[in-house]
Amino acid sequence: MWTSAAPLEITPGDRRVLESWVRAHQTPQSIALRAQIVLAAAQGHPNNRIARELGVTRTTILLWRRRFSSGGPEALTEVAPGRGRKRSIPPEKIAEILQLTVSSQPQGATQWTCRRMAQATGVSPDTVNRIWRDHGLQPHRIKTFKLSTDPHFIEKLNRAGKPGDSIR
pTM higher than 0.70, yes or no? Predict the structure, then answer.
């Protein structure tokens, strides 16, 4: 026979945050679901009932109760290491695309396009676009894009991280 879990301890401030996440239209559904789990657990509902009402497993309820207890609301927004889709483009291919983008021009053109770069490197145009976006490159904007003469540009670009970060 299962015994009911003790109600989850939750501060009024945390309750307000979780309730706002559940109500907000822009909250990712995964985070809203986690917030609903914690709020139901704080009301003292049994784990099996919460699982049944929210369409998840009892194990999921136990996981998010435990994560909230140890990390508060912020823990509900984190993805555990090793989760999610693995990268399918090797770092060498990314480096090749970045190097070509910043140090060369395609034959018969003034700048690279996603399609032309994709043909030159053997990947899809979406992959090129994603790599350029992740590194803040916009070679199709001829008025603002300049080829770099800095031999360490790629290294600095990778170190800078997100678009908008300083590359100095």
Answer: no
